[in-house]
Structures are given as structure tokens and as C-alpha cells.
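Section 5.1 Outputs to date
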Amino acid sequence: LKSGPWRELDRSANEWYLEASAVLWGTGKFLLIANSENDYEEKRSIIQRARENNLQQHRFGKEVQRKETLVQAIVHDVIGMLTPIKACFALLSSENLSPKARRCVELGLQQTTRQQMLTQTILDVFSAEMGALDPFTKDPTQAPDVVLCAKAVLEALSPAAATRQMRLQLHPSIAPQRGRKVVGERSRLERVIFNLVENAIRHSPGGTVVTVGMKSEGQSILITVDDEGSYVPQDMVGALFEKLIQHRGRSGRAGLGLYFCRLMVERWGGTIGYSPRPRGGNRFWLRLPRAVVH
């Protein structure tokens, strides 16, 4: 039996950290008293460090929370400012403008829409990491249609592709059919496809083609985005969908686009990945479960 540590003072007022042990050895009974100062100091030091670390963790958490709140407030303000700017460009586009002025308005509307989607992506990434995203549905009557989402994205990005003499297309094998609705949310699924297609445009040479394809795979639908650019470096493949990753040796910017895609697709129960195309170019793909009524 052990008594546990205690502290005593001797006649000279020196502190002693003691611990007693009662031992039965054969027929002998022993009471052992040990000087446990080293053990006591070690335990006290560990407890003190744990308390300090806990306080630091608490302060760090509060600081992160303040910064996240600030970032979200800034993003909300930016989105709020972009909305009237976009409305002004849309209003101007209906006026009788010269070809040059109309082209400027179209570019302004295109870039404003793109910036609006980027800032919303930042907000969604924060929301996803904090588990605060809106719920999604598996009901086919409410679930997004992947073909319609892809068509909307290609139409929105066609001006950006035209400036580089690139062509965007749906794969010729895609035909009207049932069973194209998947688990997810329409606006975010469009942004996922938007990010992948825009990524293909930025990393492909001018005059090439970007193709969006899809096919049924049992209870899932596979969506592919194929380009004719150079392969992603092998040492970067494993980190493509991580936060703030930029390809070395390729044009572009560090960002949240592919990271956002992974967060959304995995949230919906799907998978996302990359593979080089055998005849050159890249394929980014995502596989989402079909939306079914339970």
C-alpha cells in the first residue's frame, strides 16, 4: 500500500517531500518512507506545463475564432459590394453600346461573376471546416442535374475560353437521359465544376479543347474534365486537393479552388481525383452518388 506524497518541515524549516509504502514480505511487515522530492517536482512540472499549454491552446482558439469571424465579415462585405457592381454591368449590357464598349462590359460582368464565386468559395471553405454548411438533399426532385450544371458552367466560362481561342464542350456521348441527378446542392456543384474547368483553361495552351464528360457507374455518376495541357508534376499529384497549393513551374495562383472541390464532394459522399490522360493532357474527375428517394 502507498500513502501518496506529502510534505513536511524539519526543525530547520526545510521542506521534505515524502511517501510511505507498507510492504508485506513473507512474514515480515515493513514501512518504507522515501524522499520523493524528485518525483514530486517532476509531476508538479508536468502539471504546470499542462496548465500552461491548456491556457495557450485556449488563447490560440480564441485568436483563431476572432480571425475567422473577421475573414467571414470581410467576405460578406465583398460579396455585398460585388452584387450592385454586377447589377450595373448587367444593366449596361442591355444598352445600345459600341462593339468595344460592349466587350468591356462583358469582360467586367465576367470578372465580377468570377470574383463573386471566388469570395463565396472562401466563405464556404470556412463554413465547411467549421461544419456550418447548409444541408443538402438526396431527393431527386430537389437534387442537382449534373448535365444542366455543366452546361451552365461552360456557358459562363465561354468568354474566358474565347480570349485564348480555346473551345469548351460537353462530350458528344452525353445525351438527354434520366438518372443524372446526384447528391449535392446545385450552386455548389456548379462551382465545383466551374473550378475544375477554369483550372483546365488556365493550365492549357491556347487553341486547345476542354471537354466535360460524364457516365453512369452503377449507383454513381462519374464527371470528368479533360484538357490538353502538360501533365501535373508527379511530386505535386498527392497534394493537389490540399489547401493553398500551387503547382511549381505552372502558371496560376495559390488558392482554395481544388480544396473547396474536395470538401464539397466528400461532404456529399463522393470522391475526387486526378489522372494523366494516356495520349496527353490531364483529367480531373469526381464521382457522386445518385440521388434516390428512400
